[in-house]
Amino acid sequence: MTVGLVIVSHSARLAEGVAELAGQMAQGKVGIAAAGGTSEGALGTSVEKIVDALNQVDGPDGILVLLDLGSAVMATEMAVEAFAKEQRQRVEISPAPLVEGAVIAAVEASIGNSLQEVAEAAASAYTLPKGHDRNG
């Protein structure tokens, strides 16, 4: 089993799309669950959806949670608290940008890296260039 990933977004469609992209990059070797939107289908976050996602990807190597906006942190922290006590220490909330971080995390997890290695690689996604340097 590898490190699992949970994608938390205020939008169910965004979470599902990022999970789909990351899943393709990992070639199906990584458990990835999307937790987007509220339980009623509106924009927002749901502690229950996040707990469900944590349970879906739970494994011995830990879980990295990637978020779309800072306000998703509170719901995620509440979900981690509601997650089984003996497993909480194996859940890490990433500061990485959502899309780039999820893709990098998925690739790193797919090759069997540890939770710490996957988290560090995802966090480094801030440094990835997104376009041509027009100044030089």
Written overview of the protein:
With 136 residues, the chain is of the alpha/beta class. The chain is built from five helices and four strands. The chain has helices at residues 12-25, 47-57, 72-82, 98-110, 115-123; strands at residues 4-9, 32-36, 63-67, 91-93.
State the major sheet.
4 strands, parallel
- Count of DSSP E strands? 4
- Content of β-strand: 5-15%
Distance between the termini: 45 Å
Assembly status: single chain
Provide the low-confidence segments as ranges: none
Helix content: 40-55%
What's the total helix number? 5
Task: Output the strand order for the largest sheet.
Answer: 2-1-3-4
- Indicate the structural class: alpha/beta
SSE order in H/E notation?
A: EHEHEHEHH
Short synopsis of the structure:
The chain is 43% helix and 14% strand. It has helices at 12-25, 47-57, 72-82, 98-110, 115-123; strands at 4-9, 32-36, 63-67, 91-93.
Summary keywords:
136 residues, alpha/beta, four-stranded parallel beta sheet, 5 helices, 4 strands
Write the layout of secondary structure elements.
Blueprint: E1 4-9, H1 12-25, E2 32-36, H2 47-57, E3 63-67, H3 72-82, E4 91-93, H4 98-110, H5 115-123
Parallel strand pairs: 1-2, 1-3, 3-4
Helix pairs in contact: 1-4, 2-3, 4-5
